[in-house]
Amino acid sequence: MGVAMEPVIIVNLKTYSEASGEGALSIAKAAESVAKETGRRIIVAPPISDLALVCSSVSIPVFSQHVDNVKIGSTTGFVPPEGAKAAGASGTLINHSEHRLVMADIEQLVKRCESLGLTTVLCSNNIAVSRALAAINPAFVAIEPPELIGGDISVTDANPEIVSVAVAVIREISPEIGILTGAGVKNGRDVAMALELGTDGVLLASGVAKAKDPRAVLLDLASGIPG
Amino acid sequence: MGVAMEPVIIVNLKTYSEASGEGALSIAKAAESVAKETGRRIIVAPPISDLALVCSSVSIPVFSQHVDNVKIGSTTGFVPPEGAKAAGASGTLINHSEHRLVMADIEQLVKRCESLGLTTVLCSNNIAVSRALAAINPAFVAIEPPELIGGDISVTDANPEIVSVAVAVIREISPEIGILTGAGVKNGRDVAMALELGTDGVLLASGVAKAKDPRAVLLDLASGIPG
Amino acid sequence: MGVAMEPVIIVNLKTYSEASGEGALSIAKAAESVAKETGRRIIVAPPISDLALVCSSVSIPVFSQHVDNVKIGSTTGFVPPEGAKAAGASGTLINHSEHRLVMADIEQLVKRCESLGLTTVLCSNNIAVSRALAAINPAFVAIEPPELIGGDISVTDANPEIVSVAVAVIREISPEIGILTGAGVKNGRDVAMALELGTDGVLLASGVAKAKDPRAVLLDLASGIPG
Amino acid sequence: MGVAMEPVIIVNLKTYSEASGEGALSIAKAAESVAKETGRRIIVAPPISDLALVCSSVSIPVFSQHVDNVKIGSTTGFVPPEGAKAAGASGTLINHSEHRLVMADIEQLVKRCESLGLTTVLCSNNIAVSRALAAINPAFVAIEPPELIGGDISVTDANPEIVSVAVAVIREISPEIGILTGAGVKNGRDVAMALELGTDGVLLASGVAKAKDPRAVLLDLASGIPG
User: Fold this and answer.
1) Which pTM does this prediction carry?
2) D94 to chain A, minimum CA–CA distance in Å?
């Protein structure tokens, strides 16, 4: 784990209909209540069209799902880092597997976000790419071991070496970087395992966004953080 | 002008820093107040990260600056039409010159928006493209005569035939479509000229978004609508 | 059918391994031999990396599979119309369903190609898009009725109205434009049906590109053209 | 310099009209003749539409300007690594500043090319990105110090530390990787300086592609390699 880094749970609401508009607000408020109740660090990334509304409605940190490396001003329908900041975000996902960016833009976005005080989470699809992304010094790299993506296999059941090898490779490049387990996380046991394997937290989506009772799932996830 | 269509003023706030976050809210409220005071139809398109917040704060129609032809659910950092709708939008710009889309996506987005009750404004860069976009039957086509874009030339001073020829060509394809003058509009005189030339309103950006006193500019624009 | 237009068979070799490098040359030569033998108009579109070599090796027209709306000069790894022309192409597909372009670029590419003497074939995925693309006056529109794409259903067996309605809609916009049946063509009977339905020819791919004996398939296709 | 690596001069012909079609062939033959005469390692990257023709016409190595991370088969107007190989290429530029790729595709393309025996040259815009790209182990990284791009400043005149710092950073990640000076190279003196600064060769474009006498320029460049 990163030096003295507090474990974090980041919930990406994607564009699920249950988690858009009113749904985004409702899940963000559930996350806020669980964060207060448990004292754990929980962050929500709502649909970008709901970003400012969610930011203005909860006291926990809210992240943008994406930022675009466009200049502010004469650009339409994009979210430059300054726009995410103005909306109230305190950080952002970058290069999510569903919204890939070219390498030169990733690097510039990390710099732009840093100068604005926005926390950066670079998403990566495998160990080689994680190593490359760590080389440009974001706050976090979220690793999505291909064996764990989009399925029922949880990080607890899979071969735990997948994650621990990734951690070793990334830390060799950038010793103090935050690392997130970005796939295979469903419940508190998975969160505990993610931390045991040396990552600093988790990034998950459908497990919360599509849950019948998001608050209950969030409570269970938070229970996986020891201490 | 389209049959019995009420003239409209659409304000695109783009990603101007003055018109993001608090600025977006403030301009949207000015537009609401001018719309109430003058009885004119004014629509605001805020930065997409501010969309839901602006929608929840004003009673005039709010448009998205853009929508993406992605499915709802497992897509991150995009705005599907359903997401714009959930945020409270009542319409959207599509294919803005700063956010071009492939033809197949434009056509599908018009259909998706229509089925959701979202008003569509397709942006076009010249007469040939306006003719093509009119052929897929959006609610509006916004034409940006290249002679008028991004400069100090107003539609009032330029050769008015630029706009009237475009109108004739578009109406030949689709007689009742709404047409907007999408460039060269700075003040009430330009709005009046845009309507005289046969368009149903205007789409403008920096003239309001970067104005020292957006309310005063909006009042002047509204004064260009006769009757 | 277009006024006095000679029926045409266009073969898109895509990037099939059997139809790349030596394979592209071999199929192009088979097409040349069938064109000579039957007197029919056959055009080949090889992988773009084989374009100049195929152009320099056969006497029938060769088309590019794609062109990019980039300027000539400081652009790397693209094919501007001028590059396709310099390679020896006499025309090009534009906006193939596997290589979509934004509307503004499609319109500019048609103009650039026209001024270079390159024949343009705009590919379209449905009737509404066909209508829109016809509005910018390319030499040909290739229609791919969704019911016929990528399957075993041939245009002969499917509801023939799919094609004839598309033809009527396109010709209403642009009376003398060439129209190609772009899906559901496997053999000479399909070619004959495509012409009967009012199109001016066919655009096909795997039926030739992956054939054990491309020359035999081409002979059969050519036999579908009457007279 | 990389362990026992022979210095290399790579000439990117981009899409310059002088270097397309017949022009591409003529410059490639000049490069071949200079390579034979001087014994130096010279590689040409012609417009992709001329790739197979140039490959079939000269005996020096020919590189593709770009490859696309698409599957072979049902893809139109792209160059998968297998297509570049079938055309006769022995390597390829990847992620040129004029043709950026998303990170996940860069990583997969390096693997695909490697398995086909294609030499990979990853282009990078600054030191941070060079470090990241080196982390995925291509054959070469070409660095383009922003201070040297597209101007009259040659690497000889500029602050030489720009290049030597980049070399140190890259070699820390990947000790035996080839490194190319990708900007600021006009003549033999610049080539000599590029080698002195610890790179293994140069990547240049307009200096040769737009030269009145490409052969003379190539002879001068080759003279910069000592020994």
Assistant:
1) 0.95
2) 12
How far away is chain B from the Cα of C65, in angstroms, using its nearest Cα? 17
Give the one of B106, B125, B173 whose C-beta lies nearest to C135's C-beta.
B173
Would you say residue D151 has pLDDT above 90?
no
Contacts of D131 (CB under 8 A, 6+ apart): A135, A136, D169, D170, D173
- In single-letter form, the type of residue at position C39 comes to G
From residue C84, give the alpha-carbon distance in Å to each of B137, C68, D50.
34, 10, 9
CA of C128, closest CA in chain B: separation in Å? 6
Residues D107, A129: C-beta atoms closer than 8 Å: yes
What's the full length of chain A, in residues?
227
- Class of the C8-67+77-223 domain? alpha beta
| The CATH number fitting domain B8-68+77-223, selected from 3.20.20.70, 3.10.180.10, 3.40.50.300, 3.30.1490.100 | 3.20.20.70
Smallest Cβ distance to D103: which of A95, A134, A173? A95
**Residues D15-60 pLDDT 10s:** 999 999 999 999 999 999 999 999 999 999 999 999 999 999 999 9
Catalytic status, residue D144: yes
Question: Which residues of B are less than 8 Å from A16 in CB distance?
Answer: 72-73
How many residues can be counted in chain C?
227
Which residue in A has a C-alpha nearest to residue B87's C-alpha?
A21
Q: Hey, what are D60's tokens?
A: 């020096």
- Chain C residues touching residue B101 (CB < 8 angstroms): 102-103
Quick check: D136 and A125 CB within 8 A?
A: no
- What is the number of CB-based contacts under 8 A between chain A and chain D? 69
Report whether pLDDT(D111) > 70.
Answer: yes
Q: How much is the average pLDDT of C200-208?
A: 96
Two tokens at A106?
């990733």
What is A8-69+79-223's CATH superfamily? Aldolase class I (3.20.20.70)
Beta bridge partners of D145: none
The pairing of beta strand A8-12 with beta strand A41-45: parallel
Q: What is the mean pLDDT of residues B111-121?
A: 98
CA distance B188 to B60: 20
At A9, which helix (H) or strand (E)? strand A8-12
* Residue A161 contacts residue A114 (beta carbons within 8 Å): no
Tokens 């706030």 sit at which residue?
B13
Of C120, C130, C110, C109, the residue nearest B107 (C-alpha): C130
Cβ pair C87, D54 in contact under 8 A: no
Give whole-number Cα distances, B25 to A78, B58, B196, B208, D75, in Å: 18, 8, 32, 13, 46
- Backbone φ, ψ for residue B141 (5° rounding): -115, 130
CA B85 to chain centroid: 17
C5 pLDDT band, cuts 50/70/90, is confident
Q: Domain ranges for chain C, please list them.
A: 8-67+77-223
B183-221 burial, b at 16+ Cβ within 10 Å, e below that, comes to bbbbbbbbbbbbbbbbbbbbbbbbbbbbbeebbebbbbb
CA-nearest residue to C56 within chain D is D53
Instruction: Looking at the complex, report in whole angstroms how far the Cα of residue D176 sits from the nearest Cα belonging to chain C.
Output: 27
Show the tokens assigned to B13: 């706030």
- Domain D8-223 in CATH: superfamily? Aldolase class I (3.20.20.70)
Most A CBs within 10 A among D95, D103, D141, D169, hence the mutation to make, goes to: D103
